[in-house]
Amino acid sequence: MANRIRTASTLFRIGIAAGRATPGDRLRWWGLFGAAAAVAFVVLATVATVATFDGREARAEARGPVVAFGENAEPRLLYRQGGDSVGGRPVSLVFVRPLSADAPVPAGVTRWPEPGEVLLSPELLRTGAGEGILTRYGRFAGTIGADGLVTPSERIAYVRVGDEAPKSDRRWLPLAAFGRNGGATGEMVDQLAVTSPLLALWALAGLPALALTVVAARVGSRTRDRRSGLLQALGGTGRHRMIVNIGEAAVPAVLGTLVALAPYAVASVHSTRLAPTGYILDHRDVQGAWPMAAASAAVSLLVVLALVVGTHRVRRDGTSTRPASFGDRVPAWRPALCGVGVALVLTSQYLPRKAQLLVFTSGTVVMWAFLSSVVALLTRRLGSWVAASGRRKGHPGRLVGGRWTHAHPGVIVRLALAMVIGIGIVAQMQVWTSRLGVQSQAAVATHQRIKDTVVEVTPSRMTAAQTDRFRSSLPAGSVLLSHAFHDPGPPKEPWITVGGTCRDLRALRVSCHGAKATAGGNAQVAEMRRWYGDFVFVPASRIGVKADGTESLIVVTPVAGQLAAVKQAAFTLPNPAVQVEALGSGWQGSSRSRLPNWIQLFGITGILFVLVAGAVSAAAEFVRIRHALAPLAVLTGRRGVFRSVASWHLTVPLLVATVVTGVVTAWHSVFFIALVKEGSVSWTVLAAGVSACAAVSLAVGLLGARASAREAERWKPAAD
Q: Residue 179: CB partners within 8 Å, gap ≥ 6?
C-alpha cells in the first residue's frame, strides 16, 4: 500500500513538472483554467437557479391568501387582484379592505395602511418614480418588506380601499388568513418549471463550457499522446497514465474552479441584478445553498479532470506493438451519438406536448456536441482524395495538407467544434426570440407607429357621474370613446361599435352624420382598425359604461407620453378593478416578450465560451503547425508551400464544416418552428453567421501559414 502511494505521488509530481515543460504549456494552462472556471460557473448557476425557485415558492406561500369557507367561517378581509404596467413591465395590484381591527396581514406587511393609502415594493417605487407611482393608486404609506416579495425585483402594490368594496360583490374574495396557496400574484404569474431555465442554461452555456474543456485538454496533445504511449510501453497501466494527466491539469483546474466561486460568493452577500433581464437574484437564496454549491463545485472539478483523462487514452488493437494515440482516428461512437441526437430531434414531434421540448433540447445538445466529429469523418475522406491528387500532380502543399488532414482528424474536430456550436447558438437565439407570436409582434409595431396615444380603460363598472369625473381629469385635448361588444346581427354587421360625441369624432378626422359615423380617421383610428377589425363609429351625446362587462373606454391623447396621466385619472376613481393599458401593450408586457432577455443572457455567455474555445484551439494549432511546417521550406525551396498546406489542412476542412453546419442549422431551425408552431427563421442572421465562420476559416489558414513562415526563418535542425 505504501509503495502504491509513493508511486502515485511520484507520478503526480511528474505530471505537474510535465505541465511546465510541454510545448504550448502556458496556452494549455490558461485554457484549462478558463475551462474549469466556465464549467464551474454553469454548475453554480444551476445551483443558484434551483435555490431561487425554492425560495420563490416559499415566499409566495407565506403571503398566499386563505379563503374563508363554510357557513361558520367569518371573513376578516376582502381581497381582490388587479394589474397595471410600469415602463412596459407588468405590475401586480392587490386591493384589500380589512373587515376587523385584527385583519390578517401577509408576510412583508406589518400593518395595513389607512383607506386611500398604498404599500409599494421597492422595485416598483424605483422604476415608477417617473410615472407618478407615488400617487397613482393612492397616498404612499411605505414599502413592502423583503419577506413579502418573491424576488427583490418584483413589482407589486397593496392598495387599501374604503367602503366601496361591498361584501356582496362576488369578485372580492373573503379571507380568513394568509400563509397558504401562493397563488398567481406578482412574479408568480409567470412562474415556469425549473427545468425550463435549466434546459436553456445548459443548451446555450453548458455545452460551450464542456466544448472549451475538451479543446483545452487537447492542447499540445501530440507530445502528451507520445508520453502516454511511452508509459504504456514501459508497463504503465491506465491508472498510472491517469495520475500523470491529472497532475498536469490539477493546478489550473483547481484554480479555475475557485475563481468561479467568487461571483457566487458575491451573489450570496449582495442581491445581484442580472442584465439584460432586470431580474434581481435574492442573496438569501444563494447564501442558503452554499453546501450544495461547494459540493457542486467539487463535482465540476472532477468532470473537468475526467474529460482531461478521457481525451488522452491510448488504444491497442492487437495488430501492432506500436502505441497509437487516441487522436489518430474518430471513434465510431461519436458519429453514432450525433445520430442519436438527430433521432431525438426527429422523434420529439410524436411525443406528448409536455415532453416534446425536453426531448428536442436534449437531442439538440447531443447533436451539436458531436456534429464536428461527423465533419471530421467527411474531411478525413476529403484529405485522402486531396493527398492523392497532390501526389499525381506533384503538388507538395496539397500532398502534405491532405495527408495531415487524413492523419489528424482530431485537429479538425477541435477547430470545427467552436464554429459548429457558435452557429447553433446564434440560430437558436434568433429562433427563440422570434417566438413572440403574431400578437406580440403586432403590439411592437403599433407602439412604433403611434406610441401610447391610444389607451384602453377597462372598468368593472362606472356610473355616468364617474365617467364625467374621469373625463375631466384627462390631459387637455384628450378624446374619450366607448368600446362595446354586441351580438352580431346580419352577416356583414360589425360586432364592435365605438361611440363618441361628434366633437370627439371630428377630432379623429371621422365625419359624424346620421346614425353612424362614416369611414375615415387619423393614424390612431387606423391602428384601432388593425386591432378591432371591422367596426363602426356611433355618435353619442354622452359616454357611459354598462355594468355587464361588455363596454370599456378608449382614450386618445393628443401627444405621446401621457399614459401615466391617464392612469392617474383612472385609478383615483372609487373603482379598484379598473385596468389601463396602451393599445396592444398587454402583449408587450407578457412573459413571452421578456423571453429574449434570458436567451440573450445565456446565449451571450455561451458565445463567450465558444470564442475562447476557438481562440485556444486556433492558437494551439498555430503552435503545432509552425514547428511541423518549418523544415518544408528547406525541402521545397519556396515559401508558398506554407500557404498551400495551411489552406488544404485548415481552411478547406473548416469551410466544409461551415457548409455542413449551415445546412444542419437551417433544417434544425425550420423543424423547431414546425414543432412549436410559431416563430420564424431569419435567413439573414444565418447567412451572416455562416459568412463570419467562412471568414474565420480563411483567417485561420492565413495566420497558420504566416506563423509557419516566421518559424522557418529561425528553424534549425534539432534531434527531436
A: 61, 62, 63, 64, 66, 106, 107
